[in-house]
Amino acid sequence: MVEVQINLRNDAPVSSPTVPLAEFNAASNAAAVRIEPGDDARVLLGHLDQLALVEVNFPGFGDGRGYSAARVLREAGFTGELRAVGDVLVDQIAAMRRCGFDSFAPVVKLDEADVAVAFNRWPDVYQATADGRVPIWNLRHG
Predict the structure, then answer these.
(1) Residue 110's domain spans which residues?
(2) pLDDT for residue 19
(3) Rounded average pLDDT over 3-30
(4) Cα–Cα distance between 43 and 112 in angstroms, integer?
(5) Is residue 18 part of a domain?
(6) How far apart are the first and last CA of the chain?
(7) How confident is the model at residue 21 (pLDDT cuts 50, 70, 90)?
(8) In a domain, 1, yes or no
(9) Burial of 71 (0-12, 13-18, 19+ CB in 10 A)
């Protein structure tokens, strides 16, 4: 299990052991799954109600496939913990949050002050995404 450094949820991080997506099936009764780059998150869509945690691995900061997995899961209604793990950098966490990630377990611990700045840098947003923030155009034109 990876150590969660940032948890934006109101509850404690899920501590269930994760199974790789390749080993997941409905009969496994797994409550936590880990997605690797190249895995298709849509495999989980019929099982979202049984999952409390989906970890999405970022083995390298330049691999953005995990952002798409997060959006697919959130847009399909996944309400459990969505955790970014691996090579998670402070300059990426605001975008990860916008895609639906609500906890982060980076390999290298992030500076808490830098994290606060990253999450609060832009008070207004232009696109509707999974984090629930209202786009500025919608605020202007209600």
Answers:
(1) 6-141
(2) 93
(3) 86
(4) 35
(5) yes
(6) 44
(7) very high
(8) no
(9) middle
Both tokens of residue 49?
């109600």
Q: CB–CB of 62/88 below 8 Å? A: no
Q: How far apart are CA 95 and CA 119, in angstroms?
A: 9
Contacts of 104 (CB under 8 A, 6+ apart): 4, 5, 6, 83, 84, 85, 88, 93, 96, 110
Average of per-residue pLDDT across 72-86:
95
Query: pTM here?
Result: 0.87
CB 109 within 8 A of CB 5: yes
Take residue 133 and report the two structure tokens written for it: 């923030």
The enclosing domain of 38 has a CATH number of 3.20.20.70
Burial (CB < 10 A; 0-12, 13-18, 19+), residue 100, is buried
